[in-house]
Design a protein that fits this description.
Length: 180
């Protein structure tokens, strides 16, 4: 294997490793979040139960308190959010901004949608919090954000998600070992 492809493989693996990991989103210390100008949240199974429109009361209160003082935005690339849950989400988590996109993380198009929604030129000094390695963590690392991986708050609705999430977690373990 050439040196270039080894470097490329290591870089790709590093993009899968979050800077922080927590069991629950409400376990993230305020002292950590206070360091960032913008907090980006994934929606499905990070803030909102996958099979429902609402979140848990604990998460709703935590988010409202946090986003009363900080700039926060919720990003979803889920087709169900795009079609019918967006307005409910905006109402439930007001004044948090919501970016709904047909584009999937880690796409540059969703990055541009966030920039447009927030009026920012870059996402410097921003953090993303999500439950998925291949979408949320990879997106954040690809665009230079600080990344936090949390465990999902509920069960996944679609049967194919279980093996995918197990694969992601195994990939994360491998990436951590490979990049040491």
């Amino acid at each position: 294997m050439s040196s270039h492809s080894e470097t490329s493989s290591a870089t790709n693996m590093k993009n899968l490793i979050p800077q922080y990991e927590f069991d629950r989103i409400t376990d993230i210390p305020d002292s950590l979040l206070s360091q960032f100008e913008l907090i980006i949240f994934d929606a499905d199974n990070t803030l909102v139960l996958d099979k429902k429109v609402e979140s848990t009361p604990e998460i709703t209160e935590w988010l409202k308190k946090l986003c009363g003082d900080k700039s926060c935005i919720i990003v979803s690339n889920s087709p169900s959010f795009y079609r019918w849950r967006g307005e409910i989400l905006k109402e439930q988590f007001a004044p948090t901004g919501v970016v709904l996109s047909r584009f999937r993380k880690p796409s540059k198009k969703i990055y541009r949608a966030i920039l447009k929604q927030t009026g920012r030129e870059t996402l410097d000094n921003c953090i993303i919090i999500g439950d998925r390695v291949l979408t949320d963590v990879r997106f954040g690392n690809r665009f230079g954000l600080t990344t936090i991986l949390v465990k999902p708050i509920g069960r996944y609705r679609w049967f194919y998600m279980y093996p995918l999430v197990l694969f992601e977690r195994a990939l994360l373990v491998f990436a951590k070992r490979y990049t040491k």
